[in-house]
Every structure is written in structure tokens, then in C-alpha cells.
Specification:
Blueprint: H1 7-74, H2 77-98, H3 103-122, H4 129-209, H5 223-272, H6 281-314, E1 320-323, H7 324-334, H8 336-341, E2 345-350, E3 354-357, H9 359-376, E4 382-390, E5 393-399, H10 434-444, E6 448-452, E7 459-465
Parallel strand pairs: 2-4
Antiparallel strand pairs: 1-3, 4-5, 5-7, 6-7
Helix pairs in contact: 1-2, 1-4, 2-3, 3-4, 4-5, 5-6, 6-10, 7-9, 9-10
């Protein structure tokens, strides 16, 4: 199902499902709150009705008592009619108790009616003052009982309503928690479904950048991302073909150049040895020029091949734990003879720190920087080679006392075959690939090499991650 969806469709589906789950929880909470509000309003209305009915019944009972006692004294039919009118009004209040939920209120209301009937009998015919007084006293007691039981019923109903609220609150809390867990699970699932192919694409691109062209790019996930993976795999195959063509071309070029160059150098050697006859002064000068340029051309061809081999080999690291101080000491010892011949002192300072890397390639990178620094330093100069830990990185600094790097040359100083305009005390005949090889080897370790500004000379720094 998900394999037929695009990245946008899957993202939209995830948002919709999460929104539905959270909306369902919100609607359930709204329904519970609405039900509680309705119960609260109904309970409040009933409580107000019972309270009002109790007050009305008490007032009507007083009116009935007054009318009945006056009738007994005055025997006026209008007073008996007033008694009956007050009882009729009291019946309206009694209906509220009869309709109430607890049956006890309805039973008490029936008792009140019986007492009211006895009071009316007591004033009908020959008035019976004792029976009337007893019936009226019973009415007042029943009114008081109705008021007490009505208050108790209201308290019980309120407690029950609070219990219902607490139960609904707990149930709603569990529902919200469940909805959040489902939403988090959906987010994690869709996030994994979307992040996995993106990570696979990122890893595929990283392998292409690392020149690991033998591993196919296989992307699992939405249809459009799988198409991107197919294009990346096509690019991998294409880069493999181009890499093979490049290597083959370099082999052919080196062979095609070295063969005639060897014949040219052989001919120059024959001329220099005067095999074909003695050379005049001008001819000797021409032969020297040819010999020097042929030698220079052969060096450039070999440098080109070395740089190509370095670029190809930089991505194939033989990692091990490298003791930086021991590495710098070994590199410095290997170039002390060159430094001594130029009367240059090598100053070494390194913290006891180790790094995970290829000791041979790191040695080449540091050695190239040190060789350049010695070559550019004047007689009596000092080359500083330092290593120190800074946060999560290792800094290897190589500082010389030469003429430094021209401002215009800084952007291109690491480009292959580029040589700066400033030269050291003795002109150099290099091809300009040393710093390029340094950059390739350092980048292969996940680090970088930079040129820092200083008061004099050149200051190169290698930065390597300590957790590489």
C-alpha cells in the first residue's frame, strides 16, 4: 500500500490519521463535558425547584393553618374556601416532590396530603379543635421533614454528580493518553517510513562522493523516492564508467607520453655523449636545454599519475589508532636531513593524543606540509610542527618563517598543479600537487586543511575529528 504512495501522499496521510485520532479524542472529551453540563443543569433545576417547592409548601401550610383556626372561631364559609385555595396551591408544590427521583419524597408528600385531609375534616361539620391542632402540627412536622429530605437528596445528587465527573475525568484522561500514544506511534511509523528512504538516499550520495561505486543504490519507500534511488543508481553506474574511462585514459596517456619521451631522452643522451660527433658550444647549450626540459616533462607526467593515484587511494583508508606525537616525530625525523641542509630548525610540540585514521596517509599529509615549510623557509629559520586537542577535534599546525602566501593566491592554493607567485630562498621545481594531496587525504578522514592568517610565513592547520 505505502509503496504505491508518493512522499507527499504519505506525509499527508500521516497528518490526516494523526489529526483524526486527536480529533476523536477531542470530540469524546467535548461529548463528556456536554453530558456533564446537561446533568449539572438538570440537577440545579431540580434543586432550585425542590427548594422553591419547600418554601411554597411552608407558606401555604401557614395560610391553611391561619384560615382553619379563624374558621373555627368565626365559622365563616369564606375562610374555609380560603383554606381550600391554599391547599390547592400547596398541591402544586407537592407535585414537585412527587416527581422527584427518590420515592421517599413522594411518600412524604402523600403523608402530607393525608394530614391535610384530616385537618379539613376537622373543620367540616362540627369543628374539632383538638383534631385540627394535631393535624396542623403534623403538617408542620411533615414540611420540616420534606425540607430535610430534599436537602439530603440534593447533597446526594451533587455527590453522585461529582463521582460521575471524576469517573469521566479519569476515563477522558485515559482516552487522551491513548490518543496521544496512538498519535506518537503513527508519527514514529510515518517518520520512519519517510526518514528511512531519505537516509538511504543520503548514504547513497555519500558513497558516490566517497567513490564507492561498487555498492548499488537501493531505496525502499514511497514511489517517487524509489525513482530518485533508481536515478542515483544510474548515476553510480555512469560514474563507474567514467571512472574506468578516466583511469584507462590516464594509462594510455602515460604510455603514449612515456614511450616517445624515453626515445627523446635516449636521443638527447646520445647527443650529450657526442656519439654522433663532437658538439659545438651552441649545440651543447641546446642539448642541455633539451635534457632539462625532458627531465621536467617526465617529472610532470609522474606527478600527474601520482596525484591521480592519491585521489583514487584517498577513499580507501586502512584505519588504526594513531599516536599523533609518535607520528609527528617520525615525519620530522624523516626530513631533518633536508632541514639541516637548508639550515632550518624543526620545532616539535605535541600533546599526548591519539586519533583513528590511516597512519600512512596522515604521514604523507603532514610530511607534504613540513616539506613545503622547509623549502620556503630562509636559512636560519624555524618550522613549528604542533599538535593539540581542541574540543572534539585534533589540530595539527605547521608554521614556517617563509614569505607566506600572496593574497590573490589563497583561494587556489589547494588546487592541483597550482603554484603561488611567492617563492622561498631557493626556487622550487615542484608541480603543485603536494597541497592537493594533503587536502584529499585529510578530507578522506572527515577533516579539513585550512590556511590561517599570521604575522609572517604560512600557517597551515589540519583539523581531524577525534571520533572519526
Amino acid at each position: 500500500m505505502f509503496s504505491r504512495m508518493s512522499f507527499r501522499q504519505m506525509l499527508l496521510a500521516g497528518f490526516v490519521l494523526i489529526a483524526l485520532v486527536l480529533s476523536a479524542a477531542a470530540l469524546q472529551g467535548l461529548r463528556v463535558l456536554e453530558s456533564f453540563a446537561q446533568q449539572s443543569r438538570a440537577g440545579a433545576d431540580t434543586a432550585v425547584g425542590l427548594t422553591s417547592a419547600a418554601q411554597q409548601l411552608a407558606q401555604r401550610t401557614v395560610d391553611m393553618e391561619r384560615s382553619a383556626r379563624q374558621f373555627v372561631v368565626l365559622n365563616d364559609p369564606a375562610l374555609r374556601k380560603r383554606y381550600r385555595d391554599a391547599r390547592t396551591d400547596a398541591e402544586t408544590a407537592l407535585l414537585a416532590f412527587s416527581r422527584a427521583e427518590p420515592s421517599t419524597l413522594g411518600g412524604v408528600a402523600d403523608t402530607w396530603r393525608a394530614a391535610a385531609d384530616e385537618a379539613e375534616v376537622a373543620i367540616t361539620g362540627t369543628p374539632d379543635d383538638v383534631a385540627l391542632r394535631d393535624a396542623l402540627d403534623r403538617l408542620h412536622l411533615i414540611n420540616e421533614r420534606l425540607s430535610i429530605e430534599a436537602r439530603q437528596w440534593i447533597a446526594v445528587r451533587n455527590a453522585r454528580l461529582l463521582d460521575t465527573l471524576e469517573a469521566n475525568r479519569l476515563r477522558l484522561a485515559w482516552q487522551v493518553l491513548l490518543a496521544l500514544l496512538v498519535a506518537v506511534a503513527l508519527a514514529a511509523f510515518f517518520g520512519w517510513q519517510l526518514a528511512r528512504p531519505v537516509k538511504q538516499i543520503e548514504e547513497g550520495i555519500a558513497r558516490l562522493g566517497d567513490n564507492l561505486l561498487e555498492i548499488p543504490v537501493d531505496i525502499e519507500g514511497p514511489a517517487d523516492l524509489r525513482q530518485v534511488g533508481q536515478r542515483l543508481d544510474w548515476l553510480r553506474q555512469r560514474l563507474g564508467e567514467l571512472e574506468s574511462d578516466r583511469a584507462r585514459m590516464l594509462r594510455h596517456v602515460s604510455h603514449e607520453l612515456k614511450t616517445p619521451l624515453a626515445a627523446l631522452r635516449e636521443g638527447i643522451a646520445l647527443l650529450d655523449d657526442e656519439v654522433t660527433g663532437p658538439l659545438a658550444g651552441g649545440q651543447r647549450e641546446v642539448v642541455d636545454i633539451l635534457r632539462d626540459n625532458a627531465h621536467l616533462l617526465q617529472g610532470r607526467i609522474e606527478d600527474l599519475l601520482d596525484f591521480n593515484a592519491a585521489v583514487f587511494d584517498a577513499r580507501r583508508l586502512q584505519r588504526s589508532t594513531v599516536e599523533v606525537k609518535a607520528l609527528l616525530t617520525q615525519v620530522a625525523d624523516g626530513q631533518r636531513l633536508q632541514a639541516k641542509s637548508r639550515d632550518v630548525e624543526i620545532e616539535l610540540q605535541a600533546d599526548p593524543v591519539s586519533v583513528d585514521g590511516d597512519i600512512a596517509k596522515l604521514g604523507v599529509a603532514v610530511g607534504n606540509l613540513l616539506a613545503n615549510a622547509i623549502s620556503f623557509s630562509a636559512s636560519g629559520g624555524v618550522v613549528s610542527l604542533r599538535a593539540a586537542r581542541s574540543a572534539a577535534h585534533l589540530h595539527i599546525d605547521c608554521i614556517d618563517t617563509g614569505p607566506g602566501i600572496a593574497e590573490d593566491d589563497i583561494p587556489r592554493i589547494f588546487d592541483p598543479f597550482f603554484q603561488g607567485r611567492r617563492q622561498g630562498a631557493t626556487p622550487r621545481c615542484g608541480s603543485g600537487v603536494g597541497l592537493s594531496i594533503v587536502r584529499e587525504y585529510v578530507q578522506a578522514h572527515g577533516g579539513r586543511v585550512v590556511l590561517l592568517s599570521g604575522e609572517r610565513g604560512a600557517h597551515f592547520r589540519i583539523e581531524l575529528p577525534l571520533d572519526s
